[in-house]
Amino acid sequence: MRQIDHLIAGGGGGKAARLGDVYDPNRGTVQAQVALGGKAELDGAVEAAKAAQPGWAATNPQRRARVLFRFRELVEANMDDLARLLSSEHGKVLADARGDVQRGLDVIEFACGIPHALKGEHTQGAGPGIDVYSMRQPIGIGAGITPFNFPAMIPMWMFGVAVAAGNAFILKPSERDPSVPVRLAELLLEAGAPEGILQVVHGDKEMVDAILDHPDIAGISFVGSSDIAQYVYSRGVANGKRVQAMGGAKNHGIVMPDADMDMVVNDLAGAAFGSAGERCMALPVVVPVGEDTAQRLRDKLIPAIQALRVGLSTDEDAHYGPVINAAHKARVENWIAKAQAEGGEIVIDGRGFSLQGHEQGYFVGPTLIDHVTPDMESYREEIFGPVLQIVRAKDFEEAVALPSKHQYGNGVAIFTRNGHAAREFAARVNVGMVGINVPIPVPVAYHSFGGWKRSAFGDTNQHGMEGVRFWTKVKTVTQRWPDGSVTGENAFVIPTMG
């Protein structure tokens, strides 16, 4: 059976004491095993990073960028192979897998501009004969802990900017679909990065805790559930590290009475059910404003959802494939049952879905639940599956309040033709990322990604200039060049620039 090993200092991590199963979600069978490490493997990766990072930081930014340019070319040349590998372990359809890789490449392209992004500030003549300037320098060794749902994009969000800025980076991907992160690290080596600059270690909580506690790791980026994000943030900060930890979401789509209903239904089908709903930027809650809007939306949603095709991840005609594993399938179906028990109307029920010939696969059919209310636990918590809930709002004020009061504040969208309503909503809603007639408002790579409330812990967002600031520290230099004259001024008085 295929074994997925660590990538430490350009090679494997030795004989693994523990192994974890990697499943084929289409068939429900084990297709590979991954080495599960801990402190010993992490120590080896840190030592390799410590050896490589000073020389990499001393390499001028333009040369580091050239390595990333070559990496980008290699990823594009291997796009189809990466998509197939990603799809085989995650279950998302091939077109979505290619999108996963491409959205990560978008950040790599931003990182290729690192010479410009690292420029500091300069003031000539801040005082008599005194100039002041600042520079951005790498923090040293960074680490990333990434989730199963984007095994290409989110690692590249993290290591692209970190490595470009001159850091060494240790990646701990999800043990559920670990092959693509390893392949990306191999391609960066092929592109010319020194061994030890990007390494991959696999593991579970034991490895996560080792990362959080290691004294030589200066910064940690995390994406996952909110409870774990809070844990990672708290423990990492307690150990003196800078930490950005992105958590869960319950994104809302507000549908105003004047919205283009055909466009809304098309957008909802993709945003709610694409990638089987396993996206932190999915749109699992739709909020029609007014009963007439709700009825018109429901009447159009039902046939659109019934027409969705659930299939193998390799099926080019499938809209989405299986969820990641059996436990997650059971979790999603339990949430559907919970919503029903709480009083929600199951309009379309995806439980018990079976694909002929692949009855053991982890498939969940598309589900639509109406008359969901804010007091239901199934509304308050993240389901992370192909489930769309309708929460009816009587007016605009209630529609603004729903996402604003929710514990999560990752993303939100409003569908309307009214510019004033859109502007008012964007200004007032208590959520970090807003889409106006855009169902999945993930910012482009040169902006930054980050939610509010329990969707993010820490003060700095992912990628863009926020990412550059996270992976660097500012040094400010105040300089004076003596002209040979000595004034006899009191050297024991704090200097001023007057």
How many beta-strand runs? 21
Name of the top-level CATH class of the largest domain:
Alpha Beta
Helix content: 25-40%
- What integer is the average pLDDT? 96
Main beta-sheet annotation: 7 strands, mixed
What is the molecular shape? globular
How much of the sequence lies in strands comes to 15-25%
CATH topology of the largest domain: Aldehyde Dehydrogenase, Chain A, domain 1
Looking at the overall shape, the CATH architecture of the largest domain is 3-Layer(aba) Sandwich
How far apart are the termini? 73 Å
Provide the CATH superfamily of the largest domain: Aldehyde Dehydrogenase, Chain A, domain 1
What is the alpha-carbon Rg in Å?
25 Å
Total of DSSP H or I helical runs spanning 4+ residues: 16
Which consecutive residue ranges, at least 5 long each, have pLDDT under 50? none
**Strand order across the largest sheet:** 13-14-15-12-11-17-18
Main structural class: alpha/beta
Any idea how many domains? 2
Summarize the structure in words.
It is a single chain. With 498 residues, this protein is an alpha/beta fold. The protein folds into two domains: 2-247 and 455-476, Aldehyde Dehydrogenase, Chain A, domain 1; 252-436, Aldehyde Dehydrogenase, Chain A, domain 2 (3-Layer(aba) Sandwich). It has 16 helices and 21 strands. The strands form five sheets. The protein has a seven-stranded mixed beta sheet, sandwiched between helices. Strands 8-7-6-9-10-20 form a six-stranded mixed beta sheet, sandwiched between helices. It has a three-stranded mixed beta sheet with strand order 1-3-2, covered by helices on one side. Helix 2 (61-77) packs antiparallel against helix 4, helix 3 (79-90) packs across helix 4 (94-111) and helix 10 (261-273) crosses helix 11 (291-306). The longest helix has 20 residues, at 39-58. The relative contact order is 0.14. The mean pLDDT is 96.
